[in-house]
Structures are given as structure tokens and as C-alpha cells.
Amino acid sequence: MSSPKSRRELYSEATRAALLETATEMFTERGFAAVSLDEIATATQVTRGAVYHHFDSKKALFEAVLAVLEIRMTEQVLAAAAKVEDPWEAAITALDTFLDQCRDRTYGRVCWLEGPVALGWGRWMEVEKVHAFGLVENFLNVLVAAGLVRPLPVETAAQLIFHLLGGSGRVIAEASDAEKVRLRDECSTLMRRMLEGLRTR
Predict the structure, then answer these.
(1) Could you give the CA distance from residue 89 to residue 105 in angstroms, rounded to a whole number?
(2) At a CB cut-off of 8 Å and minimum separation 6, what does 37 contact?
(3) DSSP 152
(4) pTM (2 decimals)?
(5) Which parts of 83-176 fold into alpha helices (H)?
(6) pLDDT per residue over 151-165, tens digit each?
(7) What's the count of helices (H) and strands (E) in the chain, helices before strands?
(8) How far apart are CA 104 and CA 58, in angstroms?
């Protein structure tokens, strides 16, 4: 049985959560480059030292924000797919749930517009391999194992599909609110048509 957390530990956790919340809002509103750690500290009502206690740089703070958003997206996609028994339909449900997430202003901007710029392409891809890319690879493995997709090099296919999804995410994220629904539906239709070409039946 674990011992109760001390007041200091609880305060530290609360401070970290508050920093993540504030940073998420500011990165969404203004973008990574236009926000400083001092501004985040001030808006969170903590000292600059408190920020550095949890994150050694603005880049580290951004990466933590990105991870929270990607984990949330992954959980929602998996939860939606788990409600569907047929593996192919589950994958399509996962696709549509992901595209719905891209309509969210925060997820779209932070993960697909700011992410590659803030972290650099190499580090951003490392993070995505744990989250969005990993999801694609897992669904492909399930479809191949079920005999619903022709044998293929899964890792290469996952790379291509991931970048198609990323392109969809950026198209939707860059659009005005009035255009997001139309573009989400168009991306869904086009992605479905492409994926149908991989089916065995």
C-alpha cells in the first residue's frame, strides 16, 4: 500500500498540471514561437524557477503538452474502435474519430501545425511513433492478421498512411471553423477510397 502524498508533492503536481493547462491555451492561441516561459509563468501565477523545476526548457514544456493531447486522442480513438466488432469497420471508426479530433482547435494546431516546428521534424516523429504513428501500425497489423488486407510491408505502409493522416490533420487545422466540417468529410471519403485498395475483399 502506497503512503499518502505529502503536501509538497501534491503542490508540485498541481503546479505542473497548471503549467500544462496554461501552456496548452497559450500555444493554441499564439503558437510556440510567440510564447515565452516568463509569460507562461506569469499567467500560471508561479515563479520562473517553478517552471524550471518541472521543465528545463520551453521545448520540453511543449513536448509535454503535445504528449497529453496525443494520449487523449489515442484514448478516444481506441475507445470508439473498441465498440465495433468488425476489424475493418473498427479501423474506419478509428479514422473518423481521429479526423473529428483534428477539428478541435487545440489538437489540430498544437499537434499538426506547431509540433514539427517546435520540436524539429526528427524529434516530432519520435513522439508521434509512440502515439499517432503507433496507432496506425497497430490497426494495420490487426487487419493483416485478420486477412482483411493484402500482405504488405506494414512499417512502410504505416509511414505512408501516417503522413496521409498528417496531411489531413494539417488541412483541417489550417481551415476556418466554417470549412472544418466539409474538409473533415472530404478527407474521410478520400482516405476510405485509398484504404479500400488494400482490402482483400
Answers:
(1) 27
(2) 48, 51, 52, 57, 58, 61
(3) -
(4) 0.89
(5) 87-102, 105-107, 115-119, 121-130, 132-145, 154-174
(6) 899 999 999 999 999
(7) 11, 0
(8) 23
Residue 199, helix vs strand vs coil: strand
pLDDT tens digits for 65-119?
A: 999 999 999 999 999 999 999 999 999 999 999 999 999 999 999 999 999 999 9
Say whether 36 sits in a helix, a strand or coil: coil
**In angstroms, rounded to a whole number, what is the distance separating the alpha carbons of residues 99 and 185?**
8
Distance between CA atoms of residues 109 and 26, nearest Å:
11
Provide the grid cell at 33.
514561437
Q: What is the CA radius of gyration of the chain?
A: 19
Cα 120 to Cα 177: distance, rounded to the nearest angstrom? 27
Helix or strand run (H / E) with residue 181 = helix 177-196
Quick one: cell of 164? 496521409
Measured CA distances, 42 to 34, 86, 106 (Å): 15, 50, 21
